[in-house]
Prior knowledge:
Elements: H1 13-16, H2 20-33, H3 40-71
Helix pairs in contact: 2-3
Amino acid sequence: MVYPASSVPEALRPLLGLNPMAGVVEGFRWVLLGSSTNPRPLVAVSAVTAIALLAGGILVFMRLERSFADLI
């Protein structure tokens, strides 16, 4: 993410949060560069996305765990 989240149209910013790293990068930009945009909503959407991806990955792994070694 090269450009700040403020350059993205307001209607599309929740979609930017689907990238789990977007909140992290915007948070660092806020802390280190003192940007004026509040990264909390973007961090919240990114955190929820990361947790959902983790939960989905755990469920898929648990379902495929028995035959996983046979596939590799």
